[in-house]
């Protein structure tokens, strides 16, 4: 029997759908995830602040409320089979928002008897992370945000030991939707004929094309009954060097570009006065430590992992940013 193509389900698999509540559905990951679940035939409820209702996926049930109102979120979760925790705030608010939003998501999933799904960055591994990360890689955070994410992972593990079903998916830097390193840094000065890369060009860095990541969350949700109570996975995405990335951008835009190195010393100089610069410097090691994610366990769970070829994914991302005239 031939292997399924990239992104296809294994032959004979019967997907299990239902109702999903996406917390933070107007955000970068939340919007893409809501769209992916909707495309797969799920009933999708998009929970957002009322002012962001217009930014939800059309056709989903919009629930406008403040996620800090825990009782209302629990009420909104009634009848959900899966809850996706995609709530996020600016980095400077993480010391309070990460634990608070996590407790809200946990309480809502428990009340509904739902599986809780949490997409997660790589901060918890710390500056000493190995070049290949898998589900057994120890969490040894060295940054403030890493400590918060490691504590969240342990909290979720403890809840799973007490009966909650949890799926945790760690991925590299997201691109292909919303705000991120690609648009805010790498191609920020593209109109002036320049690219800026945050690290050495010959080091491998993990990226996650958002549509692929969102589809992966759907595939895991479909197979939630086959997964252990606490199911952490790594999403392999695209692991490429800065040189491969910048070369692909040059080819996509069709003209020569000057490649600059991001000046971290400038950010550090003003970091005490600019909160976002302080927070970016906190995880600057991600651009000086080569790393990629092993997707073996994920492939065993979902079959072929959704994977758009890198050049095609990047072309679509650049087109969405208005950096090229065609996808």
Automatic annotation (TrEMBL):
InterPro entries found in the cross-reference section: Epimerase_deHydtase (IPR001509), NAD(P)-bd_dom_sf (IPR036291), NAD(P)-dependent_oxidoreduct (IPR051783)
Pfam families: Epimerase
Top-level taxon in the UniProt lineage: Bacteria
Domain NAD-dependent epimerase/dehydratase, first and last residues per copy: 20-224
One MF annotation (Gene Ontology) recorded for this entry: aldehyde dehydrogenase (NAD+) activity
GO cellular component, one term: cytoplasm
Alphabetized PANTHER family for the sequence: NAD(P)-BINDING DOMAIN-CONTAINING PROTEIN-RELATED, PROTEIN YEEZ
Protein's UniProt name: NAD-dependent epimerase/dehydratase domain-containing protein
Species name: Rhodoplanes serenus
Lineage: Bacteria, Pseudomonadati, Pseudomonadota, Alphaproteobacteria, Hyphomicrobiales
